[in-house]
Design brief:
Helicase, Ruva Protein, domain 3, alpha/beta, 5-stranded parallel sheet, Rossmann fold, 3-stranded mixed sheet
Length: 346
């Protein structure tokens, strides 16, 4: 066994490095992105590690830039995470190729992705989703890659998984017109709600594991239940080609409170920049507490909160505009009175 002196001799002349350090570009991306994604540190850390590989162009030959499966209950931020990432990297939350898998529940509908094969009606007329132009549409010189999102992939027909095997394995396919499509500069994201009800039930209806006080224990329990449901639904050959599987945790009231602040700021910007009648909106603490009370739901997460804001806040403000009760430059205060919101103009 080497002595302490021997160990010191071996490390002499070496400089200790910090593999956990982030580049200035990744630090900038992390600050902007994590400010929009609340309550999912594991998810953000995993995707940032993938972006670090992309930054140094650590690509493997004939492989995609990466593939991530995001698993969790509705409203926990899976789709929002990818759209926020597109906003940070490419300038718009819509700057990605998004496939709504609920539109591909029948086997014949999968042909819309690659085009109808020869001999089928519409072979020459149907332009497939996977084309070179579609894949390169949103790329920029600063980020020459494409974000591809398969939203709620568990709703798609099983033949989609077979189609994706070759894409994830070799980063290529031939479309219905036998044209080669290259996916080597694509970053794939898959979202799924599979098993979310069972997972939430496993940790109790209120989102807490009985007799478990540690948050880490709750997270492990939820993750285990989610992964069991994942393996029951998806074929193993498809899962083996996914580089990273991220389990999003149910949002807690503290997370929803942070999301509420982000959403209220967004709504304020919408009305302040309205082309016809711009005005300012201010929110009292009582109004915020009431909106959080009405919108807090551990099962549907931020989706229920957004529905509450649309019905109880945005729609009344639009009605005030339509009836001429607010004018250009006004300030509207939102207050709570009992179980309702009250709107006042200063």
């Amino acid at each position: 066994m080497p002595t302490c002196a021997g160990l010191q001799q071996e490390t002499r002349g070496w400089v200790t490095l910090r593999p956990s350090a982030r580049s200035s570009w990744l630090q900038h991306v992390a600050q902007r992105w994590t400010s929009q994604v609340v309550g999912q540190p594991q998810a953000t850390d995993s995707v940032l590690r993938l972006l670090q590989r992309i930054e140094v162009q650590a690509r493997q030959s004939r492989r995609t830039m990466g593939s991530v499966l995001m698993l969790g209950p509705p409203g926990c931020g899976k789709t929002h995470s990818v759209e926020a990432l597109a906003d940070v990297l490419l300038g718009s939350p819509s700057a990605l190729l998004k496939i709504n898998c609920a539109e591909f529940q029948q086997q014949h509908e999968i042909a819309r992705l690659v085009g109808a094969p020869p001999g089928y009606i519409g072979h020459a007329d149907t332009e497939p989703v996977f084309t070179r132009d579609n894949l390169e549409r949103y790329r920029t010189p600063e980020f020459p890659y494409t974000l591809v999102l398969f939203d709620e992939i568990e709703k798609a027909h099983y033949s989609l998984y077979s189609l994706l095997l070759g894409v994830l394995d070799r980063a290529e396919l031939n479309d219905g017109r036998n044209r080669h499509v290259d996916f080597s500069s694509c970053l794939f994201f898959f979202t799924s709600n599979i098993g979310s009800k069972d997972s939430l039930h496993a940790i109790g209806s209120s989102g807490f594991v009985p007799q478990l006080e540690q948050e880490e224990s709750k997270a492990r329990h939820f993750r285990a239940a989610s992964l069991r449901a994942l393996k029951r639904h998806f074929p193993p050959e498809f899962l083996r080609r996914i580089e990273d599987t991220i389990v999003y945790q149910p949002l807690r009231p503290a997370h929803l409170r942070s999301i509420l602040e982000l959403e209220l700021a967004r709504i304020g910007r919408i009305f302040a920049r309205h082309p016809a009648t711009p005005f300012h909106v201010e929110f009292s603490n009582g109004a915020k507490s009431l909106l959080l009370q009405h919108g807090c739901d551990t099962e549907y997460g931020a989706a229920n909160l957004q529905h509450t804001l649309a019905c109880e806040l945005q729609d009344p403000l639009y009605r005030l505009m339509a009836t001429g009760q607010v004018s250009d430059g006004d300030t509207v205060g939102v207050f709570a009175k009992g179980s309702e919101l009250v709107f006042r103009r200063s």
